[in-house]
Amino acid sequence: MVTTRYAVHPDDFKHYDTARVRESCLLDNLFIDDSITHHYTHYDRLIVGGVKPVTKPVTLEPIDQLKAEFYLQRREIGIINVGSAGTITADGKDYSLKYKEALYIGRDTKKVVFHPSKDGKALFYFNSAPAHTTYPTRVVTHADAETVELGALESSNHRTIRKLIVNSVIPTCQVQMGLTELKTGSVWNTMPPHTHDRRMEAYFYFEVPENHMVCHFLGQPQETRHIWMKNNQAVLSPPWSIHCGAGTSNYCFIWGMAGENLDYSDMDGLKLGDLK
Q1: Binding residues for Zn(2+)
Q2: Pairing status of strand 2-5 against strand 35-41
Q3: Which chain positions lie within coiled-coil regions (predicted)?
């Protein structure tokens, strides 16, 4: 499955109703049996997708939007395992990923194959962006990641951030990815919120318990909107938009960015009292 998501002007976004907000920003049905989904966005040309190999290996084929001989002819890709331990083959070399581990694959890699796990529950979430040069393919484990703890239980935002595919861990052209795990009793992510007009961002929510949801907030700080999200759904955040959320339980999410720079700390902080 392939969709194209066009960029939205903030003045237009103010007039969107719930259905239009979801149509523009929510990425649903990311995982389809023995298939790859691709959401090609006009935000820094990031592609957000999911792979679910159940009964057979699935090959990353070029989509029409790329007009390329092979998918990574002009691109790089970051992949995070959100299912059972699985294997990805890149140009004939196998890379094994445990749950929540990441794989970066550089530009010019001609063939990428996702293999099913023994229990048929392999799930791979990915972000891909244009690349100006080629960097080495590499697995990033939890031991390799930069890990920090932020927030506090008293403010309902005690969380662990694992920076997996970031320039301080491995070299990349644009793609930056990591995951955040909220502690039991904490529900708020990315608090206090911020924007970063130099980069867009996508969130993928997972480990959302059954019968629970996450309310994701977006829009300009003085014109916020929200989307109610379920497990294994993703959402696009334009560069001018805030991105934060609160769940009815604790959960995890993967953040992915592409854009002007690779400075993780490049963000414009906001005061909670300024939000509307």
Answers
A1: 194, 196, 201, 243
A2: parallel
A3: none
